[in-house]
Structure prediction request, 252 residues.
Amino acid sequence: MSTAPDRPTSDPEALFEGDTDRAAYVRQMFGEISHRYDLVNRIMTVGQDQSWRRLAAAQIVRPGATVLDAGTGTGDLAFACLQAGASRVLGIDVAGPMVERAREKSHARDVEASTGFSLGDATRLPLPDASVDAWCSAFVVRNIPDLPAALAEAWRVLKPGGRLAILEIPRMEPGLLRPFARMHFRYVVPRIGRVVTGHSSAYRYLPVSVDHFLAPRELTELLRDTGFMVTQVRMLMFRTVAMHVAVKPDVS
Ligand SMILES: C[S@@+](CC[C@H](N)C(=O)[O-])C[C@H]1O[C@@H](n2cnc3c(N)ncnc32)[C@H](O)[C@@H]1O
Prediction:
């Protein structure tokens, strides 16, 4: 079993060098900030993040749908899918404390019967082929070193005609807004993150992971290469957040 590396706390950039286990860092780091994760989200997005999750859920959930939320964290996208009409939502995450928090919230909302939160990896889903109507993920795929494997798993577990939605902070293309966005992610976000969570590296890792991630058109290409038909790419929050919506074609 891999262990979290000690280097990245001082240098998140080192996580993107070949011999470092980024997945182990990500799992440990999200576990360590789970208690304050929701609060940082609300502050960082000026309260907008829940509306993006509702928007994504509305694109993919049909009444009675079974949905998988990959990298569910504290469960907010899963709850948005329930509100959108899903009858069952499964949330999986590699970080145990995040899964615990999602279960607590599910209990507090009295929706335990229609949710199932468990430990799991988006690149190795514990589900049969063609078993869900929708697959979704919010602010996760940037953290998965083998993203093609995660998308291939999404394809495998989706029924033909099933829908996928991804919310993510993409690498920004050059443009007028980019210098402002970079300043926000490099200088404002890490300070807020450190003060609220007490974690020194989590929110310094964030802008580095964004710089190493795909631009929106590259994620569109990757989805197409996996076999998906991309139906919508929508930019939110001054183009700092992208929502990709896609369908697994029903060829029968
Ligand atoms: C930024 S949080 C997003 C949580 C939630 N989706 C939300 O909307 O707030 C990223 C989450 O993805 C999880 N994660 C990272 N890599 C994963 C993987 N390969 N499989 C499942 N979960 C993963 C992390 O543990 C963390 O809880």
Residues 1-8 have pLDDT under 50 and may be disordered. The beta strands are 66-70, 88-93, 115-119, 132-138, 158-168, 229-236, 241-247. The CA atoms of residues 26 and 143 lie 7 Å apart.
